[in-house]
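MODEL INPUT / OUTPUT PAIR
PAIR INDEX: 1
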Amino acid sequence: MKREPMIRMLTGAAALALLSACTVGPDYARPSDPVPAAFKESEGWKIAEPKQAASGAPWWSVYNDPVLDQLERQIDINNQNLKLAEASFRQARALLEQARAGYFPTVPLDASGQRAKSGTNSTSSSPGRIRNSFDLSAGATWDIDVWGRIRRTVESADATAQASAADLASARLSAQATLATTYLQLRVNDEIKRLLDATTAAFQRSLDITQNRYAVGVAARADIATAQAQLETTKSQAVGVGVQRAQLEHAIAVLIGKPPSDFSLPPVEFSMGVPVAPAGVPSTLLERRPDIASAERLMASANAEIGVAESAYYPDVTLSASFGFASSVIDDLLKMSSRVWSVGAQASETLFDGGLRGAQVEAAKAVYDQRIAAYRQTVLTGFQQVEDNLSTLRILEQQASVQDGAVQASLQAEQLTLNQYQAGTVAYTSVVTAQATALSNRQSALTILQNRLLASVTLIEALGGGWDSTQLPSGDALRSDAR
């Protein structure tokens, strides 16, 4: 048989197999989502100045802080957790390419040369015969995807790679949000330190006033001791806040991939409002959160694995062919008279496996059910996080307004009480009480500001940080990335 008829036979067999091919297993359909019509906590609350990042700008630009912007841009370069997630994504892409390789035949090339001597006959004195053999051949083995096993495997690997891409986006967003919250806590910590330092200076003036009054005999020695104790306590508090600041600074260093000893962040003037992002329509949350996208893609991957498991019920069809040369004389190896070839097809089917395939199908279906439950739980958790932070921001905004009134009143009371003490109409204990109340109210106001800032970051993170599912790579993008 000539080579052309052999090739036509292989091509015809492959075409027949492909034309009759079918894909077993269920086709993927995204299940229903528990999506509300509107966010409960946004009803009746009009955000005074909702703020979103400009198109193409990173989400943290709403805070208008150049230092934060500089730090955030180092996340992609140096954060080790993000590098780990990126390596996992590259692994998923490689596994997808590995699955796609099943579409194509395997073509090995073999070459061999051998020189051998046959044994001599014990009744004969003639020497043994020496024989040479030379072979050069190429073959092809093609596992025809009649039942869609390879297609389902590729479908599963493709969805898994997309899930890994979403995991990478989720890890990036988490690192960015953690850095933002840590940075904002550090800045509020600096404001508390500045407040305590200013209060220490004010308490020093109160001590001076008390000492002067004692010197002229209009104040008791106990007043000096009380003023001194209050001053030293506030100094101690000012020193103590340095512990948290150092830890926050170290955390920022690690987030941007630097040793804490090589990083420092000096205090700066801090004046920042709370940028609240509008929540939008709940249904868009499904496309804006990378963790939801990852859970959905893993669900699609598990669905494809059911088809892979079900394909084991059907026979495997393999085409094979080889063509080459064989000769005992190397000079004659490549002559047409030395050519050898073969072509064939094979089908194999398991007749009995003790229920193995049925168990594998049931296991794949159970994994799919798990993925559905995990996906729906991720969706519910996403809505909860948005609702939590909307309510937190709304309530804290109200609390901040009330607290600002308390701060103004306590500062006025502090000044009035100090004036009365200097006039000799009240005891020094009244001054101490008024000063402690004013300091406590101002610290509470800063704590509320910190909580509002952190809630704004968490809300932006819960809303996806500007990400959406259209950024997931697919098809040619995944293949080009893998190369």
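PAIR INDEX: 2
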Amino acid sequence: MTLYHFKNFEMLDPEVGSLKGGYELVVENDKIREISSKPIKSKSADVVDCGKRTLMPGLIDSHVHAVLSEVVIRNMESVPLTLMTARAADLLKRMLDRGFTTVRDTGGADWGLKEATDKGLIPGPRLFIAGKAIGPTGGHSDGRRRTDAGTRCHCCNALAFSMGVADGVSGVRRAVREEMRQGADQIKIMMSGGVASPYDPLDSLQFSMDEVHAAVEEAHAFGRYVCAHAYTPEAITRAAKAGVRTIEHGNLIDDASAKMMAQKGMFLVANLVTYFEMKKRAAEYGMSADMLAKNDLVIDGALRSLEICKRHGVPVAYGTDLLGQLQTEQSQEFTIRAQVVSPIEIIRSATTIGAQLLRMEGKLGCLKPGAFADLIVVNGNPLKNLGLFQDQGKHLSAIMKGGKFHKNALH
């Protein structure tokens, strides 16, 4: 049995929304055993003196792509799975370095990577996986070139490993069942065009209503849910009507589609940083002018989408969706959102709302007895300075995942 006794900290409970002093916390094995405003007696525990720093739950990024290690994802077709995995291991470690103790991968990471992080074979956050992102022929997840007549083998092509194509109700059912057989925590489908795919217009509608209904029905039957890549109000509305649970991106959302999402109890997973970073840097990595033009279309609505969702009561989770070399900017999402929402709202998006989205309330994103001991110790007050999440974890003195220290500079 491993015991840690945390003392001398300011507690940031996202549900409360302000710092509270005078508390102590005991971790037993991988869980929080006790939190008290009175001294806790625990003679056998290792004492962790936080030196008046802020102790809070580990962060949750609800939209990452651990295996997409190229900004231009078409380049992944020449990456063998061995190299893909090695790169993913490095990207996952760096996410944990930044204090993200849980991430939700929305296309690419499989049960093997999840098992490797769960077992400690590679350092990384808790992984909630979608397996392959699924879309129709010619859609956002169709990675073929126009000169490709058939499908490509995924055993030596990381792009084909990450995305799948399915057509018709029976084809969608089969594809969804296969991803769930492979251990998917959620099913990712494409319902509109995308920035990083070369051939589909941004406002294209992908998958018919019958196909989406089939995906939702199969996911629900397996105890899972569907998340949908969608930008436009039309795509968002179709997803809502079909029973999709979360909208990924949603930059062009309007009041009517947001109102419907609220009525259906849906989540938006916004990821603004990826568009700002692609605008600044993607051209140097080879992103085409057509893709960058699509990026310009969605960047205008990025901050406005947060305001619309707040107005209608749609919970917004923290997501980043960064590709390849841009993934170093994962924590910049905090400062971008701060232009329109408060620090505590952003922190809740990366803790309590993320946990709700993952159906892990009381286990992740909180400081409660029985929750997983996923904790970070911050050198200051993030409610007053969101920049403390920047600089690749430089301002985090301790990072604990499942009761084990990934980093401990508290001496």
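PAIR 2 NOTE: The mean pLDDT is 93.
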